[in-house]
Amino acid sequence: MSKLKTLISEGAGKIDPVSVSEYVGVGGYEALKKAVGMTPEAVIAEVKKAKLLGRGGAAYPSGSKWEHLLHIPETPKYIVCNADEGEPGTFKDKLILGKLPLRLIEGITIAGVVFGAKAGYIYVRGEYRTIQKRLLKAIENAKAAGYLGANVLGTGFSFDIHVISGAGAYVCGENSALLNSTEGKVGRPRIKPPHLAEVGLFLQPTLVNNVESLASVPAIVLKGGDEFLSIGHPDSGGTKLICLSAHAKNHGVFEIPLGKVTLRDAIYDPEMGGGIAGGKQLKFFHLGGQSGPIGSPAQLDTVYSYTDLRKAGLTVGSGAIVVLDETVPILEYLKGVTEFFIHESCGKCVPCREGNKQLLKILEKLSVPGAANENDLANLRRLVTTMTAASFCGLGQSAAVALNTAWKHFKPEFEANVNRGAAAAAA
């Protein structure tokens, strides 16, 4: 029996992505028709019952976020979709954006109806040039069919969606940096509070949700929150799009019901990862993107849910599962991760800007026999603590997560080249 579930990916690759009639043929826009006849409170109640956790990485309860915004009296309100999919090993939003853009557009439009918004924005990763053109065509077709634009479905409600192109900055995946970039400002994180629900895009109340989160909304409205919840885990309803890459035999995006599949299933099931390429052994896996934790084979039987992974010291994050085999030295891998964060740091705060550079220096010393001593190991641990506690935004705070979790599983590799007598001699 298949462990996969098609809930938000239904129709992907089977219909013309920009054809409204073909999308309607697979049940598209039924949720919007239902939503326009519901009160905002009723729609939000279903989202809350569904226990939809934000699919972008933070896992914040979407229902609570929506309810908070509803109770803010200021207008106008804006709907913003975070489609800046810059997390290495993550390409699940690309599936929705490229193959089911109308499902995303429907979810954004439902949010627009709920909050009486006049405009929504989709901030798309700059590298997704072809997808941006497809989104614009899908928006144009939705307007022509009466599902978007002036007088949506004859209700008198008008709502438009604009597409904004990013320029390749990883930090713009952080919601407040994304809003700054949308406004034409430097893409750097804002001080919070005030929260984005209160002072967001153009200093107005704003809902910011991930592509996968908004694409889940039509299913929640159509099926009801209770049914959506039953598909997944009691603490987090529905499904999750996961991305298998690197040394997994099968690469791709797979939709799984939360709480009903283990990491072993995801990596080894023939319908998903299919095991390790070349018949090699699994050494470790990197979950949720470069800012996520590294896991070991001993954790393979952990159930893939927000709750179970958190208990195991792991995380869902963006949904990435980067699989690495026995040939990969952990220090070399971590140097690549750290170089990525050095490149992508916006430079706003010292702990992130300078801390990542110092991490790389120590990792390079640890890779050379006798070049590092025990003081370097102590400094490495101290840097991790400082960066996590003192960095301004999530980028710096999570930049050392991979290193910190790898230390727990592969400490002997960190210590293998350390000159044990050098620290004492220096003292």
Question: Could you please describe the fold and organization of this structure?
Answer:
By secondary structure, the chain is of the alpha/beta class. The chain has helices at residues 20-25, 30-35, 40-50, 62-70, 92-99, 101-115, 129-144, 175-182, 211-223, 225-231, 263-268, 306-311, 330-344, 350-366, 374-390, 394-398, 401-415, 422-426; strands spanning 78-83, 119-124, 160-165, 206-210, 239-246, 252-257, 282-287, 294-295, 320-325. The strands form two sheets. A five-stranded mixed beta sheet has the order 6-5-9-7-8. Strands 3-2-1-4 form a four-stranded parallel beta sheet, with helices on both faces. Helix 7 (129-144) links the parallel strand 2 (119-124) and strand 3 (160-165). The mean pLDDT is 95.
Distance between the termini: 63 Å
CATH domain topology of the largest domain: Rossmann fold
Category by helix and strand content: alpha/beta
In the predicted model, the low-confidence regions spanning at least 5 consecutive residues are: none
Number of domains: 3
Oligomer: single chain
CATH class of the largest domain: Alpha Beta
Describe the biggest sheet? 5 strands, mixed
* CATH homology-level superfamily of the largest domain: NADH-ubiquinone oxidoreductase 51kDa subunit
Please identify, by name, the CATH architecture of the largest domain.
Answer: 3-Layer(aba) Sandwich
Tally of DSSP β-strands:
9
Shape: globular
With strands numbered from the N-terminus, the spatial order across the biggest sheet is: 6-5-9-7-8
**Overall mean pLDDT:** 95
Q: Summarize the helix and strand pattern as letters.
A: HHHHEHHEHEHEHHEEHEEHEHHHHHH
Strand content: 5-15%
Query: How much is the radius of gyration in Å?
Result: 22 Å
Question: Counting H and I runs of at least 4 residues, what is the number of helices?
Answer: 18
DSSP helix fraction: 40-55%
